[in-house]
Amino acid sequence: MSLVVQSEAGAPSLHEMQVFQTISKQAVESRLYNHFGGQAAIMMTMLAARELGISPMLALNGGIANIQGKLEISARMMNALMRRSGIKIEIVESTDDKCVLKGTRAEGDTATVSYTIDDAKKAGLVKQGGGWVKNPKDMCFARAISRLARQIAPDVIGGCYVEGEIRALEPERVEQ
C-alpha cells in the first residue's frame, strides 16, 4: 500500500468537495478526530493533503497535523513524498547519536545532511521521558529527513515541517 497518491493540480472538483465534506462530517461524528478541532479543520487538512498528493485518511491518521495553520507531516510521509518524486535517499549513517542522509534528485542535485543528538540538545529538544530519550535514532532520522527535504525538495514537501518541529518552535508557556 502506498502512503501517497498522485497530486491533483488546481481546485478540487465539486464531487471531490462533496466527498471531503462527507468524510469530515463522519470524522467529527466518530469522535476519533476531535484533536483536529472540528469539521472545518478536518476539511482544510484534507485539502492540504490533496495538494501534496496524500490520501485523506492517511492524512487524518497521522500523516498530517495542522497546528495553527502550519502543517507538520510525519517523517515516514516526508520520506515517501521525496521518494515518490524520484529523489534517491541514501542512509549514510544512522545511530542513536547521529543520522547522515544523502539525497539525489533525478536532475542531479545532491545534498548530504546530518542531525545529531547534540543538535537536539542545543535546540532544547531532549527532555526526560520524551521521544529523544526513548527513540533517539528515529528522532535523528526524522530531523535529518526534514533538513534534507528543505535543502533539495522544498517543492515536494510544500513548506511542511516534520512532525514535532512546530511544537518544538513554540515558546513554552509559563504559568503566572
Distance between the termini: 49 Å
- The total count of helices amounts to 9
Mean pLDDT, to the nearest integer, reads 86
Query: Helix fraction?
Result: 40-55%
Identify the strand order in the major beta sheet.
1-2-6
SSE sequence, one letter per element: HHHEEHEEEHHHHEH
Say how many strands there are: 6
Model regions low in confidence, pLDDT < 50 over at least 5 residues? 170-176
The amount of beta strand, in percent, is 15-25%
What characteristic shape results from the CA principal axes? flat
**Structural class by sheet pairing and helices:** alpha+beta
Biggest sheet overview: 3 strands, mixed
How would you summarize this macromolecular structure in one to three sentences?
By secondary structure, this protein is α+β, with helices and mostly antiparallel strands.
Structure description:
- This protein starts with 13 loop residues before the first helix and ends in a 7-residue tail after the last helix.
- A hairpin with a 2-residue loop joins strand 1 (64-67) and strand 2.
- The strands form 2 sheets. The chain has a 3-stranded mixed sheet. It has a 3-stranded antiparallel sheet with strand order 3-4-5.
- The protein is an alpha+beta fold.
- It has helices at residues 14-30, 39-52, 56-63, 75-84, 117-122, 131-134, 136-152, 154-157, 165-169; strands at residues 64-67, 70-73, 88-94, 98-104, 110-116, 161-162.
- Helix 2 (39-52) crosses helix 3.
